[in-house]
Design brief:
- The protein has a single domain, classed as 2-Layer Sandwich (Heat Shock Protein 90).
- It starts with a helix and ends in a 6-residue tail after the last helix.
- By secondary structure, the protein is an alpha+beta fold.
- The chain has a six-stranded mixed sheet with strand order 3-4-2-1-5-6, with helices on one face.
- A hairpin with a 2-residue loop joins strand 5 and strand 6.
- Helix 1 runs antiparallel to helix 3, helix 1 packs parallel to helix 4 and helix 4 packs antiparallel against helix 5.
- It is about 35% helix and about 25% strand.
Length: about 180
């Protein structure tokens, strides 16, 4: 995948497949520390210890339709290629958190991509799921949550309005420039 936001969307899709009713995406940019930390956290069914141990292996999948599961493995690889790191925690019955830390100046770091587009696509395709975005850059932050937004009617128009609001808030934090 060419953008970090697409990796996050892919991991969120795993969360949905695991029965998550709540999914949180996090983006934290710290230019002074040269770090970008992204995470996807859910309240899905979680993984047992063996599955958690093997989940970064591209030849491991719980799906029956194919024999490979590249999502987590590629998310991990994208972070490590930038000089960063990847961690994943999971507990059966409680959910999973996958976190990828990137070195911003890493020559092989993928661009962040459009977090607003990613959130809008997830919201539009999964109106029954509660999504939260926590976004922070250089000491400024905001949170957006579908379950606390006053105009949440879970229609396609809501997803479009959510995208617009998220993008406006990202632009405010980043001064209108692309974040990284």
């Amino acid at each position: 995948m060419r953008e970090i936001a697409l990796h996050m969307a892919d991991i969120a899709e795993n969360s949905l497949a695991a029965g998550a009713a709540r999914i949180k995406l996090s983006v934290m940019i710290d230019r002074a520390a040269d770090r970008l930390i992204t995470a996807v956290e859910d309240n899905g069914r979680g993984m047992d210890a063996d599955t958690l141990y093997r989940c970064t292996d591209p030849f491991m999948t719980t799906r029956t339709a194919r024999r490979v599961g590249l999502g987590i493995a590629l998310f991990k690889l994208s972070a490590e290629q930038s000089g960063g790191s990847f961690t994943i925690r999971s507990e059966q019955g409680r959910g999973t958190r996958a976190e990828a830390a990137y070195i911003i100046s890493g020559i092989d770091r993928a661009p962040l991509g459009s977090i607003a587009d990613t959130m809008a696509a997830l919201i539009a395709a999964n109106p029954e799921t509660d999504f939260t975005l926590e976004y922070a850059a250089d000491g400024k932050a905001f949170a957006f949550a579908t379950d606390t937004t006053p105009y949440n009617d879970r229609t396609p128009a809501f997803a479009a309005a959510a995208k617009k609001e998220i993008q406006q808030r990202i632009d405010e934090i980043n001064g209108g420039a692309e974040p990284i």
